[in-house]
Automatic annotation (TrEMBL):
Protein name, UniProt field: F-box domain-containing protein
Stretches assigned to the F-box domain: 15-63
Pfam family, one: F-box
Annotated InterPro entries: F-box-like_dom_sf, F-box_AtFBL13-like, F-box_dom, FBD, FBL13/AtMIF1-like
Amino acid sequence: MNNSKSRKVGKINKKDRISCMPDSILCHILSFLSTEDAVRTSILSSRWKLVWASLPNLMFNDKLCYRRDGTSDNGALTRFENFVDRMLLSNSVSISKFSLHCQKKPRYLSRLKFWVALAIMRNVHEIEVNLPVDDPFEEGYEPVELPDCIYNSETLEILKLETDFVFKSPSSGICFPRVKKFHVEIYKPNMPDFSICPVLEDLSIDYSLNFDWDADISISSQTLKRLNLMIGGPIVFANEHQATIEAPKLEHLHVNDGTLVSYLVYELHSLCDARLDIDYSRVRSDPVRADHALQLLKKLTNLKSLYLSCGTIYALGEAYRHLYDAHQYFLPTFSNLSFLEVRIREYGWWILPIIFNCSPNLESFVLIMDVNGPEYYVEAGWIEPQFVPYCLQFNVKKIEILYGDDDPLEPVKYLLKNCGVLDKMIFRYVGESSNELCKELLMFPRGSKTCEVELRGKYGD
């Protein structure tokens, strides 16, 4: 009797339960594979033969068409292109995502245009195209054109274009009518008109300036809530370019500027969070460029949360030293600022109290010391302020510090001593283990009777 039961259990365990699942679940499982691997499942059994044809996500990558030395297999490339054709033409079922990553541009760009058009015809919700950028000064250079149908698609909601595309504004006066998330790289001065994108909320621009450009950056949108602006290019021509931002509903702003263009900023009434990551150093020192960083920060007075990089702090310090005599009016008051994160090298210590003085309602503060990093900055050690900022005495309740070997302990001692209502200081030590350091830290006097000091690992752990 027992042997009979065990044989029945064995038969049950051998049953293919996955194949018994409905097509919708099988398609969901296959969506985690590359499209090529998903199609290969058709050889498993007759049950799997056509499941791949209903895949919601079509994701293609030609990396297997290239040898280890970077050379291409033309036969493999042809098979890859034919495979993309077949997948897009094999079914009329709507697809959720079309993704294409290529090591080199397709040999015939008209084919890429055809693929995107087919995805639009299948009511695609998300398109992602990642292609290498060719040198525009090389003979035979050809930028990528998008099919006209993409500008008027009523289903496309997410668009990510990472290559040198050419944009054409439709004659209808409305562009990308349903696109809410738009990530784009721009290598030639053909900035899309974002003001005619009626529902755009999340915009990421990677803008590469070039020597022969005279085009400025213009971002105008009545619906935009999140903007990530990355600017790179030759430093020589940085002062000749300008970025204009007009977005009354913008809530989150991240500027990563390697050239420090000048900024015109309007109507950022809703902005609550900003990250300013500016590349400014002794190598790229220029007081006029430093003032660009200052003028941008002055326009962000409604912030609740602010991140400032080493380069940004350095630029603010240079503007303070070289351009302004009335130092008490150097920065406006950030009345709503409750969270501040600052990355500092040696040069930033004396500008930090000025920021504290302009942030009376600051409650939480993250300090990342980076004095052991590559030295691009003028060395200037910690100088204790003459007056304790109001926010430290009455409002700051939490401080988090990332500390490495040879970083100064004086700022830590100052903050513990002068923060009158501090509840917690989290001290993250990333250098060699040192019991003596920990003991010294715990012995520092504290201005708040309720303050606790915690010793942890790296920031973000």
